[in-house]
Amino acid sequence: MIGNDWDLALNEEFEKEYFLKIMDFVDKEYETKTIYPPYEDIFNAFKFTPFNNVKVVILGQDPYHEKGQAHGLAFSTPIGRAIPRSLKNIFKEIHEEYGYPIPESGCLESWAKQGVFLLNTVLTVEDGNANSHSKCGWQTFTDNVIKLLNGHEKPIVFLLWGKQAEKKKELIKNPHHLVLITSHPSPFSARRGFFGSNHFKMANEFLKENGLEEIDWKL
Question: Exactly one of 62, 127, 143, 216 is catalytic; which is it?
Answer without folding.
Answer: 62
